[in-house]
Amino acid sequence: MILLDDAPPKPLPLPRTAETLGEQLRRMLGTGGLDLPLPGAGALLRRWRALAGFGRRDLVLARLAEGHTDAVAILAEAGLTPEPAALYGVWASKSGGTGSQLHNGLLTGSSRFCSGLTLLDRVLVTAGDQLVEVDLSAAGIERHPDAWQSVGMDASDSGDVVFDDVPAGRAVGPPGWYLARPGFVLGGTGVAALWLGGTAGVLDSVYESLLTKADEHQLAHLGALHAALRGSEELLAATAAVIEQIADPGLANDTCRASVERTARDAVDLAPRITGAGPLCRNRRFAQQVADLQVFIRQHHGERDLADLGRKVLEEMGS
Question: What residues contact residue 133 under an 8 Å CB cut-off, 6+ apart?
Answer without folding.
Answer: 75, 122, 123, 124, 125, 168, 169, 170, 172
